[in-house]
C-alpha cells in the first residue's frame, strides 16, 4: 500500500457507497478492482498530474479516467461526500484542512492582461479547496 492509498477501514466505508457495477459487461475492469481504481483517482487528484501519468500499479489510466467520469456524471461523488460528512458529523470526529496562498502587496489592484487570461484558462485563481477526513480513535487522543 502506498502513501495516500485507502486503509482497510476507509475502504470498508467507501465500498458500500459506490454503485454496483454489472459483472457481465464484458469490458473494462471488474468491479472487484474498484479499490485500485479509487486509489488511482485519489493519486491523480492529490498530485494534480494528467490522467495519462497515473502509475500503472493502479490500472490502465483510461479505465481510471472513464470510471471517474461515469461516477461524476451519475452524481456518485456528491453522494459519497454527503454521506461521509454525515458520518463524521454523527461521530463528532473530523478535521478540516485548507490552504491559503497570500499574494504580494503589489499584486492587489494590478492591471490585468494576457497573462491573467492564460491563468484563468488554466484554472488559476479558482476558489480554495479543502479536504475533510475522519481521524482514527488513537490519533484523536494524541491531538487533544
From TrEMBL:
Pfam families: DUF4096 (PF13340). This is Transposase. Residues 6-80 form the Insertion element IS402-like domain. InterPro entries: IS402-like_dom, Transposase_6_like.
Amino acid at each position: 500500500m502506498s502513501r495516500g492509498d485507502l486503509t482497510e477501514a476507509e475502504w470498508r466505508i467507501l465500498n458500500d457507497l459506490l454503485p454496483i457495477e454489472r459483472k457481465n459487461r464484458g469490458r473494462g475492469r471488474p468491479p472487484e478492482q474498484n479499490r485500485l481504481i479509487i486509489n488511482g483517482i485519489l493519486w491523480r487528484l492529490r498530485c494534480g498530474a494528467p490522467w495519462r501519468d497515473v502509475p500503472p500499479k493502479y490500472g490502465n489510466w483510461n479505465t481510471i479516467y472513464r470510471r471517474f467520469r461515469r461516477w461524476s456524471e451519475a452524481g456518485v461523488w456528491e453522494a459519497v461526500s454527503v454521506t461521509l460528512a454525515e458520518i463524521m458529523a454523527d461521530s463528532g470526529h473530523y478535521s478540516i484542512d485548507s490552504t491559503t496562498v497570500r499574494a504580494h502587496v503589489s499584486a492587489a489592484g494590478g492591471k490585468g492582461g494576457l497573462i491573467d487570461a492564460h491563468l484563468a484558462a488554466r484554472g488559476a485563481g479558482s476558489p480554495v479547496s479543502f479536504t475533510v477526513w475522519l481521524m482514527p480513535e488513537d490519533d484523536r487522543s494524541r491531538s487533544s
